[in-house]
Every structure is written in C-alpha cells, then in structure tokens.
Amino acid sequence: MSSYIGIVIICIGMVFNLIGCIGLVRLPDIYNRLQAATKCVTMGTCMVLLGTIVLLPDISYILKGVLCGIFVLITSPTAAHALARAAHASGIKLWEKSVVDKYEEDKEPGIVHRIEK
Fold first, then answer.
1. How many domains are there within the chain?
2. Pick from 23, 59, 92, 106: most CB atoms within 10 A?
3. What is the pLDDT along the chain (117 residues), one digit of tens a residue?
4. Domain range for residue 32?
5. Alpha carbon separation from 83 to 32, 56, 63, 64, 103 (Å, rounded)
6. Residues ≥6 apart with Cβ < 8 Å to 54
7. What CATH code is carried by the domain that includes residue 59?
8. What's CA 75's distance to the chain center, in Å?
C-alpha cells in the first residue's frame, strides 16, 4: 500500500516539475519565469523527495531526503530572489502588462541599484 502512495506522490511531484518547465518556456519575462521555476519546481522536487521517503522507509533515506528537502527549500527562493534583483539592477524591463514593480518602489537611498557598464 505504501508503495502506491509513494508512486502517487512522486507522480504529483513530476507534474509540478513539468508545469514549472512549461512556465520557463512559455512565460514572457525573466521575473515570471523565475516565479514558475521557484514555486513549481521547488514543490515538485520536495514531493519527489517525499515520495522517495515513503517508498524507501530506511533511516538513511529519510535523513537524506529531509536534508535535501531543507536545502532545496532554502536555496531555491534565495537564488530566485538574487537573480530577480540582479536582473532588475541590470535594467531588464518587466513585461509590458506587469502592474507592480516592488523593486522600483522599495529603492533605498544610498544603495547602488544599477550596474555601471
């Protein structure tokens, strides 16, 4: 029974990863693509790790799965934020139908926001 549950969880994770990959190809600008990559692929990867833990309930697999999940949950949003901030600082424009630019609104005086070429 647990093998079926593990396979279903892994399949759900694969669907999330597929949706994230489609978002990387189909979305209009880097900021929207980072959103798809961060949310969908992080969720998909964590679901695949959870499914693996359910399929292989040995303590070493559980420990490795939990550590990898924590690593993905910490590094993926942090990397996406750094990439989005660097793209904005480089002057990459938002999609013309974007309605909010929080980086532009939150500029602090004294901090360099544009990369000099």
1. 1
2. 23
3. 889 999 999 999 999 999 999 988 998 888 888 888 898 889 999 999 999 999 998 999 999 999 999 999 999 999 998 998 888 888 777 777 776 666 666 666 555 555 555
4. 2-105
5. 12, 35, 30, 28, 13
6. 2, 5, 6, 9
7. 1.10.287
8. 9
